[in-house]
Fold these 4 entries.
Entry 1:
Amino acid sequence: MDFTLSSDQSAVLTAIDTLAKPFTAIPTNLSTFDLYSEELDRALDAGGFFDIAADADLGPLTAALVVDRLATLPFCSEVAVSMVVRATLCADLPRPVCLVAADQLQHPIRFLSKAASVLVMDGDAVRAIAIDPASVASVHSLFAYPMGKFVDGRAPGQEIRRPDIAADKLRHWWQVALAVEIAGLLKGAIDSTVTYVTDRHQFGRAIGSFQAVRHRMAEASVRATGVRWMALEAAATGNAAQAALAALHAQESANAVIYDLHQFLGAMGITLAHPLHLWTYRLKALLSEMGGRAAQGHVAAKFLGR
Amino acid sequence: MRFEWSDAQQDFKRRVLDFLRDNLPADWDATAQHGPGSDKQTQFSRTFCKKLAQAGLLTPNWPRAWGGEDLDPWCQRILAEEMWSVGEPRGAQYMNVNWIGPALIKYGTDAQRQRYVPPMSSGDAIWCQGFSEPDAGSDLASLRTRATADGDIYRIQGQKIWTSYASAADMCFLLVRTAADSKHGISILLVPMNTPGIEVRRIPSLVGEGDIHEVFFDNVEVPRTVLLGAEGQAWEIISTALANERIGIPRYAFARRCLDRAVARLRSRQRFADRAVRLQAATAAAFCEAARLHSYSCIDMRARGLSMNAEASAARVATVMAERKVAEFVVEFLPEALSGGDGLLEAHHQRAIVAGIASGAAEVQLNIVATDLLHLPREPR
């Protein structure tokens, strides 16, 4: 066991912090639900960051560390699936990539309006779809990601089977990507809330000095830290049980804290002017991923009692 | 960053498991269900700890000069996990290993170390910690048990409460007030429990036999040589010790073992197919894993010589969450286990309630996390 970053991991994260700096600032007059950045995507691509999981010296753990860091930004691009899943299992797939269960294809899909490919999990079979942009329409959504939908509710275009991608491996890396993205989003949301409750004074003192707020913020922080360690461990070990439990704990924890964080912002928490929704409404989008908590629990439970 | 045990750590774990296999009797679970403070388990621990010491497994993380093997904090964690997950056959002596011994080695005089440390490293000493008082629980700095210097002696007057293992203890690591100043007026005395004037009364409790006590000190006289460190230095000494104590017991390990046991029972009775049951079980397991990794992050900091006070508080909070989730699962889905159906699950249920109370209330830990990790403004005093 060693929880210290390697020199390579430190170097990668330093580079990511430098690259991400222009994307840390909240735009003034924020009035949208989502804040997608093609520029961020291009910068990551130019830096070769989408492929680091396949680098033997870095691997999926370093990719997970990068996703965790990028998810704290107010701006988003499609990073979790590309960095953790695509780079590990199917680097040939044109990106951005959407990952979706077959029974969800007719619904709005995260990042579909920006994607070049869709990876479909259909029971034990995996398929890939090359996107024809004409077949996709952007969808207005409450979730703070760009969402798209297949026109006519089905996926046309080139659809090919990918027997080279094992469904259990896809499930594993999807769970890791989900958990680590939630970990970063939780940190972004908590950091944003900490700033607000520190600056905002009511009854003559900072809101964050009231124990009713401090304790719930502390609990949120403990949950978020636990999610992060679990996601990183699952990325490092490739252990199926750890990945299943990490995904479950991530969704469970996101569900537990989202409304609390908005509550602490009072009326500011229901405006678009404050950026908290950029993290929390992304978290909401991830609550139903892979079937949500009930499905994660069902899968994770098979590893218990053995 | 690496999440696997090294070869040396795996070898150490095998040593511990082999020892447990060879030295726990077949009916050990029946003994363990009464708790580490029970008479039966205390009696067992006196023999068990001697054997553990002879095998080099009682204090392996201590310096060689004091009966250890200089192994790193990860080995101490492995040892603690394996011991606690089978119900702590070391009884009360885990406290010696975790923090009382290290505190004496660091702050004791040569004479104190020579006198008190060897009995600990050979498995011959049971200590209790005299901290809480009727009016000083979470607010420990308000303690009032007084030690008055009188020539070559201290005269101790006062009362401790909720003291674990006091009825079995040979020695007490006692916090006393030697001056008025709240934190800097507290000192530590190393007091033999057979000193005249000490009376111990058991407190009937929800948490197992012999676990908590009242201890009365009525004009107790001890030589001034029992002072650990300097007068008024207690807060500094116990601050490090308490950070260790907060994560000293790997409660998540026993909780996870009990959860798996409950799931196995449900599965064998075809009661584990329901998705609601599976979700609650997996949720509890996830909380155990989160607590384990929180705790590991503290061990990692300790191994690197870093202070981990606030992180230890976060780990304690995570452990409380895990303990409760497992206890709630058993209550809801396997209630018959708590009415004579499974002694080990009963034992877990009894101990789970302690997780948020012992070693500093969970609310205190949340305050520390809020202030020192989140840097939220402090509450006005």
Entry 2:
Amino acid sequence: MTCWGKLNPVNALIKSLLLLCVSIASMVMLPGCDSQRKNDAAESSASVYHHSMDGAPSSLDPAQASSIYANFLAVNLYDTLYRYKYLARPYELEPNLADGLPEVSADGLIYTIHIKPGVHFIDDPAFPGDKGRAVRAEDFVYSIKRQFDPATRAQGAWLWQGRIVGLDEWKESGSDYEQEVPGLKALDDRTLQIQLVSPFPQLTHTLTQGFSAIVPREAVDHYGQEFAIHPVGSGPYRLQTFNSASAVLVRNIRFRQEPFSLQTEGFDPASQGHLGLEQLEGQAAPFMDRVEIEFVAEDAARWNSFIAGELDFIKVPVSQFDQVLVNRDPPALNAALAENYHVIANLESGFVHTDFNMDDPRIGYHPDPELNIRNRALRCAIIEAFDWQKRNEIFYYGIGYVFDGIIPPAAPEFDSQQTRVPPARDLEHARNLLTEHGWNAENLPVLEYGFTFSVTERQMFEQLRSFLGEIGYPQEKIKPLTFPTYGEYARAYLNREVMLMTIGWTMDYPDAENTVQLFYGPNASPGSNTANYNNSRFNQLYRESSGMQPSAERTAIYREMNQIVIDDCATISGVSRRLILLWNRDLAVLPDRSFVGGFFFRFVAPRSHPGGLQATE
Amino acid sequence: MRYVLSKIAHGLLLVLGVTLISFILMVWFGPDQTYTLVGKNANPQQIAEVRHELGYDQPFAKRYADYVAQLFTLNLGASNSSGEPVSRILKRTVPVTLALMLPGFILGNVLGIALGLTAAQHRGRWTDHLINGFSVTGMSLSFLVIIIVLQVLLSTPYGLNLFPVRGWQVNDPGSYLKYVTVPTLSLILVTLGYNTRFYRAVFVEESGKDHIRTARACGASAAAILWKHVLKNSLVPVMTRIMFSIPLIVISGSLLIESYFGIPGIGKVTFDAITSGDQPVLKAVVGLTAVAFVLIQILTDLLYRLVDPRIS
């Protein structure tokens, strides 16, 4: 035995260092503690809804509410003139801050909107005496002008660009807020008038967007750039805390008292009778004292948190579907979960599609008519080789809605009979197309498929490569073009540098105009027509339909446009994902990630027990 | 004093060099926020407006000079995403990261030193093999796997359900312990293997030196050998490792820990800034990390002289 073995100095060392460690940790801990010492006693009786999101907003300024996450918060912290009925499916418009639907002139150019009386912004230091003032029509005018002011870095101007008389000119002349816009007027404190350049039937839909939320000028001036984290609105909730991990909203006690009506909201007893919503009848929203939103991008952490009872709502990660569901369509939970949770499959209001860059002569339009025809044959062969069933099975758990064309099932104009549903795969025909048009392994172009780097995207690329391998496309001629961030990817495809690009489009409103515009020639990159598709007949039909009110005639035009894109083989499309949503049975609510979106927060209520609504905590 | 001043002068040059290189990387190869901020149907004019608002159209030299001036005046600008002043973001998030990371950092090093000493003391015996085996296992496990397994075991009904899965509602020492325990255990498990292996190698090398044999021959006690001769003479590499880990803990934090445990620290903010291209935040974190490294280097050099008078 050496002298080393006679004692155990390690213990002594550990003891000393542990003491040091605890001391340092204690010293460091105190400033790191959350400064908002909560009034636990007061809040323990409050009703709290714990919501989870799979991403986080970076700004709470409605002008920058371009993501679903930012929009969820914007429509709760601010008021929009309109919203969608909470329970009606298909989705229907409902006045929110507006006192009724707009009065539209016979030529469809002038919209007159009255706003509800007695609506106030929340109390905030931005106002004289810290007291929130009444919301006025002028505030809406100001909020829309902000979208056109470059200093705002707004992202929603495209909704009204070229639509409202004088608004684009207002921007051109320097965005002076003192200067009036002829087509955007507050006739009095409660009356608003919008004059359009040409009929735009989707205008009312755009007024449901977070982008159109009404902000007070005093708050924007008071907080400057920091307005993005100091929301001052008149929505059902006000912000308590916000950081990269969570946001806490508390009830706006000054929110207008409007009795909830099942009939108005489109309640369907047959499909929604089990949700406990009847208890809300006649009561005024919001029903929860607090909404705590956790931003959890990591699927495993989100699921663990939900199972531990920390969350009331979750969008179930695809990796958990097998553990959660005993039936896919319609979704049914396993017995253990069904006891405590409700489930729905929420069809997304959009679709995923892979566009060919039609501006690239290797695959798109070619000045030589003969080569142009060959390129079309090549695109059609690629589309026919694409196995949507496998794509759906592997990446969307087989519950995605696969369809052909550019009008997704969430659009009222969708017609499942119009096209092959799901898109049929015809390898034989695809091979023949290539052969008939002189394509072979030697002269096929190198396909560059762009994507933001992630394991899933890479797997999707490999799957595409294997599909095309089945029609004889050499594997080495299908190359990945990866980008580290979405911003870089967007820069590349908006500069027409990507040959094949996969795009997810979330519809802004339930009207197929919002998706057919994706293929309208003048909207080519850097606009939303990322395929740079340009078909004169299509463009003519788009212009014809753009001022039309919803009608059978307009639907027929949309469907013809859809068919033109399908026949031109401009895009490999598509799938609308179904999201599996789970929520606590102790709540009376119908969650939605589609057009109702964040508007449902105000209607979340603790499920009643005898004696009316009660707190969950 | 002359030594300190010379170190500071070298440090300043180093900061300029590091910031210049990182700035070049950020500007030419870093994410461009323009296309994240433009609306859905942008035209070239709108893209140019956003670039102008972000300052991307400024000459490189001016942008770099502004950056250096910001660093020296600590006026770090405002986040492009939220508009919040960067200095306030740092003030809000760095203490959280410190409170989150320090216990794991300290315990990971303390236990690493203890296990390293034990292994060195019993070199070649089963204790040494056991510790080595444990270390290699720890090094082989993915951080992500450790986090998820600990969450399931300690924080969900599938396991003990003792701690919250996520959050940071820290009001008092009790709540602090509640929220920090699982992240700390994760951090210890993932770092302990590396630390133990490193410290063991240092202590083994030191314990084989002549002065240790001499001390033993002179009848020095094992405790004295360990404390006075092995540990004290190994302080230079030990200190180097610990000191140079500090800036990473303070500034960069731990993205995985903060993301998976829902903790609003600087790691998550930095990651978001990288992915979104929020250059003011990114520039501040990179610049301050460089400054912190330089300061730590100066401090470490001074400490070297303190613990080992032979260093001049």
Entry 3:
Amino acid sequence: MRNVWAPKTWFLLCHSAGIGLLFALWLAGGGIEGSTTGFFLLLILTVMALFRWRFPNLTGTVAIDIVACIALSATGGDVPFALALPLFAAMYFGLHWAVFAGLYLFFDFNPLLVSVLGLAALAGLFLGHWQRERQEKYNLRDRSVGRYFELESIQRDLSVALARVEQMTVVAERTRIARDIHDNAGHEIVAAYISLQTARRIMTGENPDALELYDAALARLDSGANKIREAVHNLSAVTFLGVEALSEICNKFPACQADFHVYGDTSKIPMYIWNMLEACLKEGLTNAVRHAVATRVTVDLDATPHIVRLCIENDGVIGAKNSTLGSGLRNLRQRAAAIGGSLSVHAGDTFRVVCVIPIKEEAPQDDNEAINR
Amino acid sequence: MTIFRFALLRSTRNPLTLICTYLMPIALILIRPLWAGGNVGFFADGGFALLAMLTMSSAYLMSLNILADKTDGAVIRILAAPITMRRYLTENLLSCAVPLFVQMGLVSILGMVLYDWSVTLSFAVFLCYTILTLASVAMAFAWHCLFKSKADSGAGFSLVLFLTAFIGGVTFPVTVFPGLLEYVGVIFPVYWAMRGLRAVLETGVMNNQFWIGVAVMSLFTVAFLLYGGKRRIV
């Protein structure tokens, strides 16, 4: 029931009533014997009203109604009163230039006509303002709802990203432990085992029981070294992380050639930034396939001690004609902003997405050195 | 033109449509007393008035397919195919109008042959009835969009036909009606067709009265199409 008495309904009712009144006026003026022109004009006004009802965006066609009314007013009778109808419609649509139609009154001044035209214009103005105000409220509501859903979407993305960062951190830590065992404990044990084996060769005249115990200890040491090697192997990451992950994504991009270049030392980039860069790269490549006819994609990763910059550029610019960002890029921009960075899009001869993220100095670095090796 | 072809074939399955659209106009033109001039029985303009009423009825019957598609849900299945609503409506309405155009052409030619109509009168008859056909098809289409069942639509349209026949200047000249009732018939396209044709019959030339009638019928066509096009048929 909410929309039944909306300003639009009032407008349609008033417009229809206006046509009915004009028809009655035409009948009272002698009908077809009085003026065929009157009925013809009435029909034109009806057709134009239906036309604007069918195609609501073509409000400018009200000018045709005004011209028809003024042109046929010369035939005399009550025809000038028909001008009230397009004037009412024009004011409702916010076409304020239509008040110039009132200049007609200079040629045919009639107090009753002035009153009718004035009332029609005022009624149209009132209904039009009411409609626009109502529309603005609806727009505001729609924008709020849109923002709410966008925030929900960002929240979902961040939850997924958090889980991914946690997973990547665990993998990085396992890689660091494996490397430590391999580089430190593993090497020491193997060195000790080799030394003991060498010592065994020069131990010829010793007590046979002591030698037996020595050999047993060597065997256990050998078994221990093997178990350490197995543990290191099991701890090592099987997935790609960091710069290797980006490189792998580019290498496996199926749509076109994707060149990946790395500049600078990437070992100091923390894990949460890698996760962000990975998401950015995936979005950039997806856009190159979905919204552009790209034949080549270039991905540049610049790492400095203070910032990291990822630039994804494709040569298909079909999607670039639309200046508004899609939800994917909007969400990424929010995520970049959340960690102090920025994401910008440039559409020119090529379509370029640039993500710049600052590297915070307090971020732990040991994990990253391990995975970037 | 697949929809056009099938709509045309479909309309020929109904015997009543077949008789009204394909046989009656030719049958009418062959009945000599109807075209002798002046009033015939109740009909003010003899064969011309009967042909106008027949055109309206045929347009209604031919366009019943649109209502049938709407009521049995076929339009939803049709639109599931890669066919736009505009194409569906255009081809359906064309399939209603084209057979009547052909009939009007035949009537004009037979009138020239049988009753020595002048070329001007024959052309005026063809033009007037062609535009009336368009207006009638558009009117029937707009009418069908108002209803959800064939029975309601048929009952309502029979009332419209009755009013058209009485106050539209078909059965009686409108001058016999008292007061304002004399002019209410202008809201029917048939009134303007009869008015235009009468002007040609009286003067022998296509004067302003005739062209005003044609223009008004064209405006009626546009108005009905706009109204019908706005209403949802799905």
Entry 4:
Amino acid sequence: MKILVPVKRVVDYNVKIRVRSDHSGVETNGVKMSMNPFDEIAVEAAIRLKEAGAAGEIIAVSAGPAAASETIRTALAMGADRGILVQSDAELQPLGVAKLLAALVRQESPDLVIMGKQAIDDDMNATGQMLAALLGWPQATFASAIAVAGPGIEVTREIDGGLETLSLPLPAVITTDLRLNEPRYASLPNIMKARKKTIDQLTPEALGVDVTPRLRTLRVEEPPRRQAGRIVGSVDELVAALRDEAKVI
Amino acid sequence: MSDNIDEESFAAFLDGMRRFVRERLVPAEQQVEEEDEVPDSIVMEMMNLGLFGIGIPPEYGGLGLTVAQEARLSIVLGEASAAFRFVFMPNVGLGSRSILISGTDAQKRAYLPRLATGALRACFCLTEPGSGSDAASLRTAARRDGDFYVINGSKRFISNAPRADIFVVMARTDAQSSSGAGISAIIVERGTPGLQVGPAEKKLGQRGAPIADVTFDDVRVPAENLIGGREGLGFSTAMKVLDAGRISVAASAVGMARRIIDEASRYAVQRTQFGQPIAKFQLIQAMLADSETEYLAGHALTLQAAETLSRGGDARNLAAAAKYFCSESVSRIADRAVQILGGAGYISGHPIERFYRDSRVLRIYEGTSQILQLVIARTMLKGFE
């Protein structure tokens, strides 16, 4: 089984996010960037399938600026076999990325695409679903468990009110949720080995994909600052505050 | 031995280790404190990451970090509870280094690969009830008997002894000599008749890093367990790896200082008194600034010592000064942090209360502050005599 794992370069989850002064987006200059945490879980899931003998080759792919090759390198250090970077400095939106991935899928013919359910930068939660639709493949989103079952695959999904288990024929798209696994930290020898693995470079044009944005960002703002708490004198006062001020009861 | 580790790869590794500290080690600190033990899952991860073999060369299955790289790693890992570093440091420190520096080829092949993976856990037995700072006066004796040595004596405060598989024992092989020249290092494997490990001591701090007495009652070991195959190498070998050990303690003190200052700063910004965060008060700021300055000085000194030793330079004074300064300053930094937190820093369960206790022993092991002062002064004065 060949697995394609898309990975996205995002602002590190530990960085305090700041909005650009012109409200056009989030400040990324001089900010530590890392692999989207949900994508790390996807890489880990692919590696575990490989370690269990269920998968052969793992290809880590990313679309974005040249620096996104560092993110691919991280996936290679964790255990992916090779990488593909679709280099573009344009703003890439879910549909554009899904089309790029669909083109890569046609080129690489993987049996499985495992990807994060969403990226922590814009929380779109769309690319995996769009990719499945473009390819006409079955999809299992928000996976909390993955098991190979005969010629197909069984995926447990986290849904409102419980768990749902799906059986999918291959090829298929899986998007990963937080509790699927705890990704490994790359060992130093594996980091060094990853430097020798190949990352092929492509462009949207070479893949024949139009990535022109379909959405326009009007304004990005920081969430309102949290108000300080206060200690109320009685239950009555609390109930009144919850009803009249917070309007939650 | 490790010039082949490029800086970019090492930086990426350190980055991962920062996450390992933040995501795995720090959340487990309270559990380690309560159970006096590091969870197996974390030990397994440390094995997979190769931490047991950081100083062992790649040809024996280790990572082969330089002393300078090791120091940078120790600074990162030092931000978590000391217990974590004591899982693998005994394999990195004197135990494996004695074999690496003075061991025969057969000894290196027999032990280093398993020490590097963590399959074998080591401890180093030097201190005795009657011999601490005056290590050369140790009395544990190893008497040659045909193809064997027979060891008798007792060792005290031996780090990692309760979970060690091999014991590198410093013993007097020359009964006539009362100096270091008569001391040899001998490997004793767990299970050898007459070897007994006492119960883990209850300590002021550093829970989860067990220490115990080790006694030897007519313990017979094959003569080929004599490290280096020649008598009298033990003490001089230990002296050779002294500087690396001191730099390692200094580095972990620097990491600990960083964590303590961050905890205290976070608290000072959040805690409100007299209508504003206490971080706004200049007397709190003064304490934080003193701590930050001492941290920065210790950080610079430790890296200078580590880089000097890595280049093969004479680091005796730098290593002693780094260990002396960083262990003393982290105690002051921990003390100020308790002061900034007030009652909250005095209650069990808060990291600051734990670090206050954990930091104290840094001024004692791997050379007390007083011994280090002597080392520094003697080296200084040599130039004037």
